[in-house]
Amino acid sequence: MSRAELDDAGGRLAQGFNHVAFSVGSASEVDALTTRLGRDRYPALSGPRTTGDGYYESVVPDPEGNLVEITA
């Protein structure tokens, strides 16, 4: 994956990750954890949904704004 905003002023790509993903085992667990995180002030940025490649997922931000993907 790539993102234009990772380019720094010198034109070199920054090192790092795009997101981290955790599999929780089932769609119902994705739903439950997404709901719980929303109640704890981490609302989903996307999903829960079935992606084009067949995964059931939601994406939430962590306290620092990193993307956390919850998958089944």
From TrEMBL:
Coiled coil stretches, renumbered: none
Domain of life of the organism encoding this protein: Bacteria
Gene3D superfamilies, A to Z: 2,3-Dihydroxybiphenyl 1,2-Dioxygenase, domain 1
Record domain VOC: where: 1-72
Pfam families xref list: Glyoxalase
Family matches, as SUPFAM superfamilies: Glyoxalase/Bleomycin resistance protein/Dihydroxybiphenyl dioxygenase
Disordered: region residues: 40-60
InterPro entries named in the record: Fosfomycin_Res_Enzymes, Glyas_Bleomycin-R_OHBP_Dase, Glyas_Fos-R_dOase_dom, VOC_core
Name of the protein in its database record: VOC family protein
Organism of derivation: Tessaracoccus lacteus
Record lineage: Bacteria, Bacillati, Actinomycetota, Actinomycetes, Propionibacteriales
